[in-house]
Design brief:
Chain lengths: 320, 320
């Protein structure tokens, strides 16, 4: 990173990969200068509770409360409630631990009292001691829905049905974000995207994490206007995703499952793509696809590596 | 009890007192011949969860899962979720234990799927191994609301606010069951009340437990028609309630806080009142108030005593 004042940064974020990236970013930026704008397309209601998986993964990760083995849920988690719920014949496919449940109870009660998702998110972030600004991309409901590839008349399924219940083991042929046309960016989202020195697209699934952020009306337009200072980190390394179904989904949806495929998806609104050393041979093709390639180690196997990745990403689009 | 075949019994029930009475009753009746018709005026929503305190107290008591020290909640309960919720700044005044929460999650999810309260109640009763028939008095929402005596312009408060948050320490001047005019008896309620050999009004609070059962349209009418085979157990002994605010509420609402006051409240729809040995001097006054008095030990300090009380109550209105 250059020696000027630390930049303000807005990050488009999904779940685990984005959370790890943000944790590194907070090592190289002032937390107060960072705004994370988080996907809500995975949000759903179960047992009457409002569950926001990506917001919670970011919150738990940045507060060092995450379960380091799974990348989701709380460290030191217990399963009293879910075990009993299973005994009662209830739905226990979505693994809600006792500590995690407390957060969902809090969010649901506050929402029932009229608080918006972004208000509750701010309260939770403060309670967990987060110093960055954490925003859901929208306070309005957006539901990521997927159409299985087979059979030909397969009905759409909810994201959590696909991702958790079916362990993303089902090929999909379409992704849709129900409600997104009517969704408004949450307060502060467009302002952060418009005024931050740098916007980073975190290494998250392009279809089900970044897609439902960029497609909120107004978001893509702001990014397009400033694409030269928008840098994305490829979630695809060596033809596969580090974690989750991004690589498989790219193939199923007719895209090249590579950093080049990512460049083709992001070139319209982001000028620079950080790709892994393993993909250095693809740099020219990324460039041909319209994004300036930056080659580095993108595997965030430690906090130091995540911080180095964040510094490289910022450097790539920092002014002279 | 006479030596004939065991009678079929329908019981109007509130929470702790009714649950203890039912536990005794099941010792002297065939469980399949017993229908408990339970108050839902205390039901409420907190943290997005549908909570039915009286139904749950009956379920936990009859399945031997009740916390014997409190009379509510589960034995062996833990508090992982509520402790964390408190740490997050959430509402922890209503003591929801981990095992108890599992039941509320189950009920809420099933309700969100379209199941009625009586359907869910039946599922839960089966899962807890109950052999009696357990019915909410109505599948429709009924909300017990109380008006504090002071100040003169005090707004109504919810039952749980009064009962739990304020530990029934506030004097009240009015009780109302919001929604009851539009509530229909749950499937099976009127039939059970019409066809049971005996109807018992359990020793529960006359205002906030029995009131919102009897006032469901159609219930009182059925009882009035058969009042000679309706027997009530006085919840007031020696001028005070065994547990809870019944005695204080009688005074505050302008009634005599005694078995005689109970007789005046119930005489229209019940022919017989079981009163405690301590109140034997009141037998003539109970009779004057229009109910046939039966004097016995009504303190259910053990299962045997509860069974003896139940047998006495049934005997009092059994045919020759």
């Amino acid at each position: 990173m250059n020696a000027g004042p630390a930049p303000s940064v807005a990050v488009l974020a999904g779940g685990v990969g984005a959370a790890r990236f943000l944790r590194g970013l907070l090592r190289v930026c002032r937390p107060a200068d960072v705004t994370a704008i988080v996907n809500v397309g995975d949000d759903f209601t179960l047992h009457g509770l409002n569950i926001s998986p990506d917001l919670d993964t970011v919150t738990y990760t940045l507060s060092e409360q995450i379960n380091p083995e799974t990348g989701w849920g709380r460290a030191g988690e217990t399963w009293r409630v879910l075990t009993e719920l299973g005994r009662l014949g209830g739905q226990d496919w979505f693994r809600l631990g006792d500590l995690d449940l407390a957060l969902h109870l809090y969010r649901t009660q506050r929402r029932s009292e009229g608080a918006t998702l972004s208000q509750v998110t701010g309260e939770i972030a403060a309670r967990f001691g987060l110093e960055l600004r954490l925003l859901p991309v929208s306070d309005d409901p957006i539901q990521t829905r997927l159409t299985p590839a087979e059979p030909a008349d397969a009905p759409e399924i909810d994201f959590q049905d696909y991702f958790v219940a079916q362990r993303h083991g089902v090929a999909v042929r379409a992704v849709r974000f129900a409600g997104i046309e009517a969704a408004e960016p949450a307060p502060g989202v467009l302002d952060a995207l418009g005024t931050a020195d740098i916007v980073v697209v975190a290494p998250s699934n392009p279809f089900v994490s970044i897609g439902p952020v960029v497609d909120v009306p107004g978001v893509r337009e702001v990014l397009v206007q400033r694409r030269d200072s928008v840098v994305a980190v490829s979630p695809i390394v060596g033809g596969a995703s580090i974690k989750g179904p991004a690589g498989a989904m790219m193939r199923e949806l007719g895209h090249d499952p590579s950093a080049v495929g990512i460049a083709r998806l992001y070139a319209g609104f982001a000028g620079t793509l950080v790709i892994d050393n393993a993909d250095r041979d693809l740099a020219a093709a990324v460039s041909d696809a319209g994004m300036a390639p930056v080659v580095t180690d993108t595997i965030m196997s430690s906090l130091d590596r995540a911080a180095a990745l964040a510094a490289t990403a910022l450097d790539a689009v920092s002014g002279p």
